Amino acid sequence: MSKLIVLRLGGNGLTGVIPFTLGNLSRLQRLSMASNHLEGGIPHDLGRLMSLTHLYLGVNSLSGTVPPSLYNLSSLIEFAITENNLSRNFLANMRRFSFPQLRKLGIALNQFTVIIPEMLSNISGLELLDLGPNYLTWRVPDNLGVLKDLQWLNLQHNNLGRGTSGDLKFLNSLTNISSLRLLNFGELYFEDNEIFGSIPEEIRNLISLTIVEADNNYPTGAIPTSIGKLQSLRELDLSSNRLSGMLPSSLGNLSLLYYLNMSHNDFEGTIPTSLRNCHKMEILVLDNNKLNGSLPGNFIGQMNQLRSLYIQKNLLTDSFPADVGELKNLNDLIVSDNKLSGIIPAELANCLVLEYLDMPRNSFQGNIPLSFIS
Question: What span, in angstroms and rounded, lies between the C-alpha atoms of 255 and 230?
């Protein structure tokens, strides 16, 4: 099989180890053994496959370290070893080598440690960088903004951040990458780290961004109004941080947004009326803040795609709007632990697919609407 160019064995039930003799297939350009049950280490002999452009070994049970010989594969375009048990300092060793053709690098769901090296910025054509979950530490390099083709960046579930205000400095660099779209970097994942700092105004430059998940960190301060410039955004999750101030009315400019989660922060003030312009909104999560005032008129009923509304544990007052009856797709409505008053709107009976209605610890009065049981 000395003339073999493509070898694809992924998605089977293969067991055992990767044969070291594969290193003899000198013409091999594509090798896929992903999604099997392979064990043991990655043979260093694979480093002799100098024509290799695509290497997929993910979703197995491989262990040990990535052999240094692989760093010499200068023709690699895509390299994926996600979801194994690989460990040690793979990224640190990359400092000695370069992958001039590399477009996609996936090492998530392993046990890699050490810091993210600044030399990653030298892989100028990188489009996808998937680094989490792992055990990476220290700060995210603030020179990633030179990766002008980057579209997908995943940093989630690591130990990134030093607990200082400079932890989000890398975002200032990323704002130079207007191509970030599907993080697919339309998706920007850096949740579950220990990142401090504030969200920069320059985030407005990431005009192709479609998904931002930055929950369970320590960002502080207000959300910049410039976030309303991200009009390709479909999912925005800033929950469980230390953000404060008012929710910016510019959120209403995000007409494609279908998931918004701002829960478990310190937001105050009223819910922006402008959110009613988000006609594609399906899930709106604002609970566990300090939001006050009444729910805006003609607010809820305008979001006729809404399936879930969570506004519990705030300081909301006045009556609950009757236009809730316009929400024909509503499954979950949780408004507990506020200061809502007046009668429970009978129009809730028009929400024909409603499964979870939670309204305790408010000041509702009057009768339970008979329409509930009709």
Answer: 10
